[in-house]
Automatic annotation (TrEMBL):
This is Peptide/nickel transport system permease protein. Pfam families: BPD_transp_1 (PF00528), BPD_transp_1_N (PF19300). It is a multi-pass membrane protein. Gene3D superfamilies: MetI-like. GO terms for cellular component: plasma membrane. It is found in: Cell membrane. The chain crosses the membrane at residues 16-36, 105-128, 140-163, 183-206, 245-268, 288-313. GO terms for molecular function: dipeptide transmembrane transporter activity. Keywords: Cell membrane, Membrane, Transmembrane, Transmembrane helix, Transport. InterPro entries: BPD_transp_1_N (IPR045621), MetI-like (IPR000515), MetI-like_sf (IPR035906). Belongs to the binding-protein-dependent transport system permease family.
Length: 320
């Protein structure tokens, strides 16, 4: 069997698992929303609506059809990019979802870049100098950062850099197409709030992975052949240390997606999190259903990419 075939089969298998997981997730999300108490037509019309008007609205929403037909119609719309029409605002959900998703992706992407910029050098430093004061200080700071919630970090940063110093805005969102400078200024504080906490978590995992690699025989052999410890670690150790870190990175990306919900509220960002909370407050179940599915598919996609990266990083998985 050729190397290309050895690489293709695990990827195909993981792709099939991903597609099946998305299908199961759509069924679970739809079923969960279907069993929630309350009539969306009644909620949309108010408590004073007549039974005849409620029944007419149920027919307009398609709620009088069997659940299987409703599910197939919903999934069929999703495949064509149609997320349906809001029960409350009577507006298409898809365009709103795309706009809000862009805000959330910018926030999560910037937060993860900040987390990696903190975790990789600090984790390696803590591992290389783990018995020295600098390494102990980095480990202590990481432990403290893990204990701080992202929303609390955001509030502290707002108090310092927005209220007292006035360097950055305390909230709001400017699309990058309108003004790149204002967009960056508005993104810094929420992204740093997410990145600091996740960077502290990743720092501990990077430190642990690098410490484990430093004890391996191949690294001692590289040093015995004349490579300096730092050069041996960079050339032969970091790739092996990246394998367990990639798994944690995928979990942290999923955590960032969920954490963005709170951060968007703190900084008044029009992302998916704010849209979800507004839809829950208005009992707009179809909008909630669409947002929850997007978040679940996002988490599944991250896990799928982690599996692919795992296969590419570790040749043993390709051979198996």
């Amino acid at each position: 069997m050729t190397g290309a075939t050895m690489t293709a089969w695990p990827l195909l298998r993981r792709t099939a698992i991903f597609v099946a997981s998305v299908l199961v997730a759509s069924i679970v999300v739809f079923a969960f929303m279907a069993v929630l108490p309350g009539d969306p037509a009644q909620v949309a019309l108010g408590v004073n609506a007549t039974p005849e008007l409620v029944e007419q609205t149920r027919q307009e929403f398609g709620l009088d059809r069997p659940l299987v037909v409703q599910y197939l119609d919903w999934v069929g719309g999703l495949l064509t990019g149609d997320f349906g029409t809001s029960y409350v605002t009577k507006e298409p959900i898809g365009p709103q979802l795309v706009d809000r998703l862009g805000v959330t992706l910018w926030l999560v992407g910037a937060g993860m870049l900040i987390a990696l910029a903190i975790a990789v050098p600090m984790g390696v430093l803590a591992a290389v100098r783990h018995r020295r004061p600098s390494g102990v200080a980095v480990s202590a700071a990481a432990q403290l950062g893990v204990a701080v919630p992202a929303f609390l970090a955001g509030i502290i940063l707002v108090q310092i850099f927005a209220v007292r110093l006035g360097w950055l805005p305390s909230g709001g969102w400017t699309p990058p197409a309108y003004d790149v400078g204002e967009w960056l200024r508005g993104l810094i504080l929420p992204a740093v709030s997410l990145g600091l906490v996740q960077g502290a978590v990743l720092t501990r995992y990077v430190r642990s992975a690098v410490l484990d690699v430093q004890r391996e025989d191949f690294l001692r052999t590289a040093r015995a052949k004349g490579l300096r410890p730092q050069a041996a670690l960079v050339r032969h150790g970091l790739r092996n240390a990246a394998v367990p870190v990639v798994t944690v990175l995928g979990l942290q990306l999923a955590t960032l997606l969920v954490g963005a919900v709170v951060i968007e509220r703190v900084f008044v960002l029009p992302g998916l999190g704010s849209m979800l909370l507004d839809a829950v407050a208005a009992r707009d179940l179809l909008t909630v259903q669409a947002i929850v599915l997007v978040l679940v598919v996002g988490v599944l996609l991250v896990n799928f990419l982690v599996d692919v990266a795992y296969t590419l990083l570790d040749p043993r998985l390709r051979r198996s």
